[in-house]
Amino acid sequence: MNICVYCSSSNNLTANYYAAARELGIAMAQHRWPLIYGGGSVGLMGEIARAVHEYHGYVVGVIPQALLDREVGYHASDELIVTETMRQRKQTMDDRADAFVTLPGGFGTLEELLEIITHRQLGYHDKPIIIVNLNNFYDPLLQQFEEIFAQQFTDQRHRRLYQVVEDVPAAVTALQQALAG
Ligand code: AMP
Questions:
Q1: Contacts for 109 with CB less than 8 Å, ≥ 6 apart
Q2: Edge-to-edge, what's the strand order for the sheet holding 163-165?
Q3: CA 33, chain centre distance (Å)
Q4: High-pLDDT (> 70) share of the chain, %
Q5: Is the pLDDT assigned to residue 56 strictly greater than 80?
Q6: Are strands 79-83 and 59-64 parallel, antiparallel or unpaired?
Q7: Residue of 4, 5, 6, 9 to test ligand 1 pocket, by largest number of atoms within 8 Å of CB
Q8: pLDDT of residue 83
Q9: pTM value surpassing 0.70
Q10: Is the predicted pLDDT of residue 85 greater than 80, yes or no?
Q11: In angstroms, rounded to a whole number, what is the distance separating the alpha carbons of residues 10 and 122?
């Protein structure tokens, strides 16, 4: 099962976020789940990729040329797929993945998460999407989702589009269940 992970590119977070990214990377390597991700060497992205490698897992980085030119690419990736645009990059990541996991992140991560949820809502794919609400980071976003349901901006049945878990072990359990189902 190829897992696409969306996560922060920031190097300025508190230590617990890097620890969680590392924990997820180790678990993925141990389960033989290749990592599909944005190909960066910075922030949680770099942390998870290095952890996967440390435990002999497989890393597929997908990065646009412009970001690679800024020398933020993780060149140790087993496959480093260089795309022309950001949009092609996301498409490639989405195509290669069997499931999506979102760790805490900024605008880039949010954009990726919301797009992949939207695509599932519209029927472009039916792959599991797991939001890891570490440290309750995503509570305000989840509250906004509740507002969307409450005011009927979307249908209640779309609650199934994503699953929220509190930590990395719960994310791994959710992925195992997705794999079994
Ligand atoms: P952000 O949450 O704003 O830090 O953006 C992180 C997300 O956007 C990641 O999941 C990546 O796919 C993409 N991204 C942002 N910055 C980079 C970078 N320097 N290198 C590669 N991908 C990046």
A1: 6, 7, 8, 102, 103
A2: 79-83, 59-64, 35-37, 3-6, 99-102, 129-132, 163-165
A3: 13
A4: 100
A5: yes
A6: parallel
A7: 9
A8: 96
A9: yes
A10: yes
A11: 31
